[in-house]
Amino acid sequence: MKTAISLPQDVFEQADALARRTRKSRSQLVCEALREYVSRHAEDEVTGQLDRTLALLSEPPDAFLAAAVQRTLEQSEW
Question: Which entry of 4, 32, 63, 71 is 20 to 30 Å from 78 by CA?
Fold first, then answer.
């Protein structure tokens, strides 16, 4: 799919130089950069959704269980 975007001159020049150095087209360079950016932010979305779900499912800690866990951790070698 073709699209047109506007870039600041310095960003365009840096991207153009990188494309030449790596022997890639500007289109390929922009595509790879966008894939990486989107992939990085998709993980944040998944983590956020898991955090929200766990917050809904979490119950206040049971005092007996919390004490048992504390004793177990104190007796364990780290």
Answer: 63
